Amino acid sequence: MIDQEFHRIKRLPPYVFAEVNSMKARARAAGVDIIDLGMGNPDTPTPQHIVDKLVEAVQNPRTHRYSNSRGIPGLRRACAGYYARRFNVEVDPETEVIVTIGSKEGLANLAQSITSPGDIILVPNPSYPIHMFGFIIAGASIRSLPVGPNGHDIMEHLERAVRHSVPKPTALVLNYPANPTAEVVGLDFYRPIVEFCRRHDIIILSDLAYAEIYFEGEPPPSILEIPEARDIAVEFTSASKTYSMAGWRIGFAVGNARLIAALARMKSYLDYGAFTPIQVAATAALNGPQDCVEDLRRLYRERRDVFIEGMNAAGWKVPKPPATMFAWAPIPEEFAHLGSLEFSKLLLEHAHVAVAPGVGFGEYGEGFVRIGLVENKQRIRQAVKNIKQFLNNPPAEAGARKPLRVVAGAGKP
Predict the structure, then answer these.
(1) How far apart are CA 144 and CA 363, in angstroms?
(2) How much is the pTM?
(3) Mode of pairing for the β-strands spanning 251-255 and 233-238
(4) Which CATH code, of 3.40.50.720, 2.40.10.10, 3.20.20.210, 3.40.640.10, is assigned to 48-287?
(5) What share of the chain is helix, strand, coil (3-state, %, to 5)?
(6) pLDDT value for 142
């Protein structure tokens, strides 16, 4: 009987979302209609021309063989073409582009490639869990940089981290548009960070998975638009959100040739690349008509507006996200004492709406919940109605200090 604890598993804390997910599964098994706004899982179908290309490619038996862990040449060229069109950045598809099995796999395997046990990695907090745990699995120690809507100055925290870390940090993770906070930044944000990291020989991993899901202002930039960034940075993008291809698991890493080569070497030992027809279809996505991307942006914008207007009318003031498919919502003051996990559990049990507790994205995510715009507008309106009823008539176990009351005529959800 195996009873020892495994070293890498011991470093992983209990999955914060597991309790909510378990409750959700039990409720559905009991026949309860749960509106799931917890996971960033697109509900829209992949555009038809991309599906058609997959079907066409899979008919060719040659595509059933092992693929290439670096990605087929056509897809790497298509990714380079996307960077040229979208960001005016020229990259070499042979040495500066690699295809990943989703950006999550790429981030985790690059962490394995560049990390020695005990390395200090700087990670924003709150952030998408793989940003932290990819490095923890690789044996690193994490130093959190507080970020988010509370006005944290990342340069101040970055400078303090370098001054007070032993050994000095080796890598920094960035993620804008941000998951979970939905923050967007411009090139003026990146410039001092690139300069600082070059001076201190710190690698930058930029997660740009939500580059095309934005609603106002200029399109989010790539850190590689700063020429000097190519000396130290790799950027991860994904087809998951841009083309509703989450389950297809296809993404890209672009940037510094030495870092791309390190990732390629690691992947050569671990996988044979994504199934070739998926890569062919992803090539069609990048090279084909892009009106489907604008349609998706419009859809998420409409859902966002329905949700935010409904929540404001219900008395829960949720900031309007400028990008991503998420709203980062501060827990209403009357329920703040519960913490994000207990508040999420009560919403699930009594409003039948699943959200993600903010603490699951790091300790600085406490006091918030992440709400995914991954149901249609009718379902979102129903979620707003359910949440409004919960807020106005909280269950006794909530211990709400005072219930929210909406003034008559304040608006319909």
Answers:
(1) 9
(2) 0.92
(3) antiparallel
(4) 3.40.640.10
(5) 50, 15, 35
(6) 95
